[in-house]
Structure formats: structure tokens, C-alpha cells
Write a structure and sequence with these properties.
Layout lengths: L1 H16 L3 E7 L4 E6 L4 E12 L4 E10 L5 E4 L7 E12 L11 E8 L16 E8 L4 E7 L15 E3 L2 E3 L12 E6 L5 H9 L3 E6 L6 E7 L2 E7 L3
Parallel strand pairs: 12-13
Antiparallel strand pairs: 1-2, 2-5, 3-4, 3-6, 6-7, 8-9, 10-11, 12-14, 14-15
């Protein structure tokens, strides 16, 4: 019986993991064509699209669209040749054969592609690779891989790369860095409302706050204690 249950789970796993999303299918020098995939149970959807020009760093166009998943294509025309564009899509799905046919939550997706330099280039080859291997160095125990971005010549576009190594027996990813947990105590010496900003700031960072009311002058001392270290900050008078 357990074998049948496992087979059923494996059979349904692709359906469970399938999430309706968009993909580009054609790109020429002035247009990008996208379609929805993995939307078998979606009857229709509403979407808002923001198009960003990543070379000139401005909003190129915004548009609202409605559609169905019956092999419907969406073409965004009038684009600039040889330019990187980011399509930020926010869409709401409507399901068929469901008790709640309209999903109240909206899904977001970003598609980054580069338009062709010429109309004669192959439209089906999508240039959407923004990171590439720039250097590779192998030693006996380590593999050093240098990764670069197509936006490396500008400081206004930041590319965040999360590396992973796909092997025959699994995927290796770097461990996430966790900040060390420290106990911090704060003593705020002030008067009246002048100490409220300091109290709110301390509580925001989950600090142990002790407040002492002193004289009526504006300002105060903020004494910070962490283990055996003590620092004092004097707020300026307002």
C-alpha cells in the first residue's frame, strides 16, 4: 500500500510544484512576446506590467492587461533596439473548477531580456543571461569561480548572485550567515518627551530598556552596556 501512496505522490508532485508564470518566447529588435506557462487550472488573469529601461535607468512604459491561458500571446512593441529591459509583472489569477475561483493574492515576476540589435537576427534565441563566468581557477581542493554581470560598467544597477553548484547527487549552496545573538541593555536618562525617540529606537531593536527621569532639560544621556563594555552618547540640545 505504501508503494502505491509513494507513486501517487510522485505523480502529483509536478502538479503541486507547478506555478503559473510567464516566459518570453520571441524577442526581436523592437518587441518582446511573452506567454503564460503552467497555468492548466487558470481560466483567466489580470496583470499590470511595468517596463524598465535598464540601460537608461528609467520607466519605459506601464500597462494593464487581461487575458486567458488558451495559448494567448502578449506582444510589447515599440522598444529600443539593443537594450536591456526588465518586465515587472504583477498578476492575479482566476481559477476554474475551484470553490474560490478568484485568488485574492497577487503574484509578482520579473523578466529581464535584451532586444536584438537587428531585425534579421533569430527571434527565438532569448538573450536573458545577465551573469556569466568571468574567471575559473581550480586547485587540488577548491574551485574558484569568478562571476561578472552585464551591468558591471555601471554603479547604478546592482546584480545579486546566489551561487549554487549542481552535481550528479544534489545541489550545493553556500551557507547563510546568521548574525550572533547578543544581550544588550540600554539605560536612557532624560526628561519627558525628549527621551521618547530613544526609547522607541531601543525597543525597535529588542533591547532591554531602563528609563530614568532626570531634570527637565532637553536632551539626555544614552548609556549603552554590553557585557563589560560601556559607552555613553550625549544627545545634543534642541
Amino acid at each position: 500500500m505504501m508503494n502505491y501512496v509513494l507513486l501517487l505522490i510522485y505523480a502529483l508532485f509536478p502538479c503541486i510544484c507547478a506555478v503559473a508564470r510567464f516566459e518570453p518566447i520571441s524577442v526581436n529588435d523592437v518587441s518582446v512576446v511573452i506567454r503564460m506557462i503552467k497555468g492548466n487550472n487558470v481560466s483567466s488573469f489580470d496583470m499590470a506590467v511595468e517596463i524598465f529601461d535598464l540601460d537608461r535607468l528609467n520607466v519605459y512604459r506601464t500597462t494593464d492587461l487581461e487575458g486567458t491561458t488558451r495559448d494567448q500571446l502578449f506582444s510589447f512593441d515599440g522598444l529600443t533596439p539593443g537594450t536591456w529591459f526588465a518586465f515587472r509583472i504583477q498578476y492575479q489569477l482566476h481559477y476554474e473548477n475551484s470553490e474560490d475561483p478568484q485568488n485574492i493574492f497577487k503574484t509578482k515576476q520579473e523578466i529581464i531580456v535584451r532586444t536584438r540589435d537587428s531585425h534579421f537576427e533569430d527571434h527565438t534565441k532569448i538573450n536573458d543571461t545577465i551573469a556569466y563566468i568571468d574567471d575559473l581557477f581550480i586547485t587540488k581542493d577548491n574551485i574558484y569561480i569568478g562571476v561578472a554581470s552585464v551591468f558591471k560598467d555601471t554603479k547604478k544597477v546592482i546584480t545579486v548572485i546566489v551561487p549554487e553548484l549542481r552535481c550528479s547527487k544534489g545541489v550545493l549552496k553556500p551557507l547563510a550567515q546568521q548574525m550572533a545573538t547578543e544581550k544588550k541593555r540600554v539605560a536612557i536618562v532624560g526628561a519627558g518627551a525628549s527621551g521618547l525617540p530613544s526609547i522607541r529606537h531601543a525597543l525597535l531593536y529588542d533591547l532591554d530598556v531602563t528609563c530614568y527621569e532626570a531634570s527637565s532639560y532637553v536632551g539626555g544621556l544614552w548609556r549603552y552596556r554590553e557585557e563589560e563594555t560601556e559607552c555613553e552618547y550625549k544627545f545634543p540640545d534642541f
